[in-house]
Amino acid sequence: MSVSPVAVETPGGNDINVGSDQPLLLIAGPCALESEELARRVAGEMQEICGRLGISYVFKASFDKANRTSLDSYRGPGLDEGLSILSRIREEMQVPVISDVHDVGQIAPAAEVLDILQIPAFLCRQTDLLVAAAQTGKPVNLKKGQFVSPWDMENGVNKLRGAGGTKIMLVERGACFGYNNLVVDMRSLPVMRGFNCPVIFDATHSVQLPGGAGGSSGGMREFITPLSRAAVAAGIDGLFMEVHPDPDKALCDGPNSIRLDAIEELLTQLLRIHKAVTT
């Protein structure tokens, strides 16, 4: 099954194309912006690794995680400071950036900085948010809600297209399976590619245990590798991963993040699988 590529403009002028017959895309970085120093470290190392492996790379980090389990949980630096950090990383490191938008008021300032606007899974049905994102003309990365079937994501795609959106990517990140647990239905990958949208597999949020640690979410990072392998074998256009130098000390989603020093080995494995299923 082929899908039309989505073009992502980059600060360096070399557009990234995501879709059939294109290099694998990796969207990766810490869950939330913790500090500019850490963000630059992760972006720099990931940019170097992906450049060497021939993988298209976009740096991700949230300026605000508005859906944390607890009121006391770290959310990020906020809109103004967060976008300032992302803007400097984008311009000075020449790497495209993506972050979550949570309400219509964030769309305009975010679109001035971000190369891709991301709609969080819990907000995938919020019509006003989708319409405002589509109207910017920016690529939109729409995450499938944990409560939404893959075939129902066509409604979200139609909202974006109806508002003028032409650059749409869909993200699989697992579905609710009882309490505090997610399961990945690999059928969702070809189903959503059937809407003629590139599909991204969120390998780290898919192993999250929502609210599973009481006041925060837990995770089972040991399953990142097998699920990533399975998703690439099933046929996807890119991967989304939360990457941190020391996940156990991460301020957000550490239990389901992959170590920065482990990412290259995994990507090398995934490239071999991707080559096998696309040639």
What would you say this structure looks like, in words?
Pathway: Carbohydrate biosynthesis; 3-deoxy-D-manno-octulosonate biosynthesis; 3-deoxy-D-manno-octulosonate from D-ribulose 5-phosphate: step 2/3; Bacterial outer membrane biogenesis; lipopolysaccharide biosynthesis. Its EC number is 2.5.1.55. One of its GO terms (molecular function) is 3-deoxy-8-phosphooctulonate synthase activity. Keywords: Cytoplasm, Lipopolysaccharide biosynthesis, Transferase. The structure is a single chain. The chain has a single domain, classed as TIM Barrel, CATH 3.20.20.70. The chain is 33% helix and 19% strand. The protein contains eight helices and 15 strands. It has helices spanning 36-53, 79-93, 104-111, 127-135, 153-162, 188-193, 224-234, 263-278, and strands at 6-8, 16-18, 25-29, 56-60, 97-100, 116-119, 140-143, 168-172, 175-176, 182-183, 199-202, 208-209, 218-219, 238-244, 258-259. α4 packs across α5 (153-162) and α7 (224-234) packs parallel to α8 (263-278).
Beta strand count: 15
Through-space gap between termini: 13 Å
CATH fold group: TIM Barrel
Q: What's the CATH class label?
A: Alpha Beta
Total helical segments = 8
**CATH H-level superfamily title:** Aldolase class I
Coarse structural class: alpha/beta
The main sheet comes to:
8 strands, parallel, barrel
Mean pLDDT: 94
Percentage beta strand: 15-25%
GO molecular function, one term: 3-deoxy-8-phosphooctulonate synthase activity
Family: Belongs to the KdsA family.
Subcellular location: Cytoplasm
Pathway: Carbohydrate biosynthesis; 3-deoxy-D-manno-octulosonate biosynthesis; 3-deoxy-D-manno-octulosonate from D-ribulose 5-phosphate: step 2/3; Bacterial outer membrane biogenesis; lipopolysaccharide biosynthesis
